[in-house]
Amino acid sequence: MLPIRQNIEQLGPVAGPYSHAVIHGDTLYTSGLTAFGSNSQFEGAGVQTQTILDQLSFLAESCKTSLQHLIKVTIFAVDPADIPEIRAALINRYGENVPASSLVFVKELFSPDLRLEIEAVFAVHPT
């Protein structure tokens, strides 16, 4: 079975050789998402986290799944001081559906305004 590669128009054009989402079998893998180009690009980590979760939710729904089926996230953050804001936004959105998670600190992201990037893995139900 070949993977299904999808770009979601509402998330903006891709700027390199990647897809927003790849579905293989019953699993959806996302590229890293940021607040770049959004109204929250210049806001703090908590607001940027909310924006990224909105993007992930939209992407998941476009691929026939939801945040309830989130399996794993990897968060790339630039400042340990942002963790309380990021954590609060995640707890608020996850509810009872807490995924496995990894947190990696990086020196910087591709734009100095960005506080974090999140990539995710979802379970999907075949149609």
From TrEMBL:
Please state what the protein is called.
Putative endoribonuclease L-PSP
Q: What is the lineage of its organism?
A: Bacteria, Pseudomonadati, Pseudomonadota, Alphaproteobacteria, Hyphomicrobiales
Q: Can you tell which superkingdom this protein's organism belongs to?
A: Bacteria
User: Which organism was this protein described from?
Assistant: Roseibium alexandrii
Listed CDD domains: YjgF_YER057c_UK114_family
